[in-house]
Amino acid sequence: VTIMLINNLQPMTSDSAHVLWRTLTTAPPLPSPEPEEKAPLRAIDLAKKIRQEKREEERTTKGIKPTATPLQKRVSELKQFTQQLQNVHPNVLAKHLHKTMLFQNRDVIVLNKPYGVSVKDHGGGTCITAVLPILAKMMDLKVDSELQPCLGLEKEVTGTLLLARNQEAVDNIVYLHRHNQIQRKYWAITVGVPVPSEGVIDIPLIEREIAGTQHHFKMGLSPMFRLNETGEGVSRIRAHRQAESAVTKYRVLDSRAGCSLVELEPLTGLKHQIRVHLACALGCPILGDHKYSSWTKLAPQKLPENVLGKLGLEKSKTRNLTLHLHARQMVLPGTTSQPEIRVSCPMPKYFTKALQRLNLIFPDEKEPN
């Protein structure tokens, strides 16, 4: 039908075209369509709206925050872990350390160090050393007793912290440590699975300056060997005079979905040794290690999508992740008069929650083969 109509059209003359043009240009504009009226609010919708507003008003009056989403709850939970004891009164920190003490005898004390609290004063909130006199009073120690931290832990590391109760104990601990007779084991959650699953990392460390827009310093590897130009075999190179020996034993306890629970035993005690060996030597940075997950810049750790999903986080919220490195166990050798001292420290809450979310299992919880 359409084709027939088009074929029956007569050709337009110049006069008729002129009339059509004049009609189109002088015709009044078409009236704009009237806006559609909104549907009237139903009584049931109005009642729901009033009830919702009333509930929010009551929550505000009582000081209750609006219901948080699962993501907001997770971020709030992480922030709470990091800020729990960083800026508390010294008496509060001393009381917490006393309550969570792991071991004591006439020579040493082993504390359960919380996250985010420095052992020594670095100008950032309450430190453990500053509250030791208060702790000594709580323990009713002798007046001449002076608690001294030995083999300190980094601010972001939790777990066993060794204190000496007298100078003789300090000297003994220094001797044992120098001769590698104190065994310390750490647990870490890593992003990535170390290959091989067990081994010894023997690569010296050196502090390096990172230039650029974010000028900073980091501990880095200073290898003693390099690959030959052919790619086959290695050649020994001269060690940097400022590099120091660093040796770490490790073994994977469990791995799943690109993450691992790793046990580490440092045979030397350099700054950030475990973190650098995991991130730079094995390519498996510790979960929450924002310093060593990227070498050239300081930025929140980037995590794979599947790990973010299991942790219940978005990319923009990874900055709230804590460092998942825990001093799990300490063993001091026995003497003729004293037995061996073996102290294990329970995992902090944020660590166990991360293990659960990542489906990583403690070794003693695995089903027998």
From TrEMBL:
The lineage's top-level taxon is Eukaryota
* Residue ranges occupied by any Pseudouridine synthase RsuA/RluA-like domain in the UniProt entry: 107-279
The reaction(s) catalysed by this protein are:
a uridine in mRNA = a pseudouridine in mRNA; a uridine in tRNA = a pseudouridine in tRNA; uridine in 5S rRNA = pseudouridine in 5S rRNA
Q: Which InterPro entries match?
A: PsdUridine_synth_cat_dom_sf, PsdUridine_synth_RsuA/RluA, RluA_PseudoU_synthase
* Similarity comment: Belongs to the pseudouridine synthase RluA family.
> Gene encoding this chain?
LOC115557446
Indicate where this protein is primarily found: mitochondrion
What is the protein name for this chain? Pseudouridylate synthase RPUSD4, mitochondrial
Q: Name one GO molecular function term.
A: RNA binding
What are the GO cellular component annotations?
mitochondrion
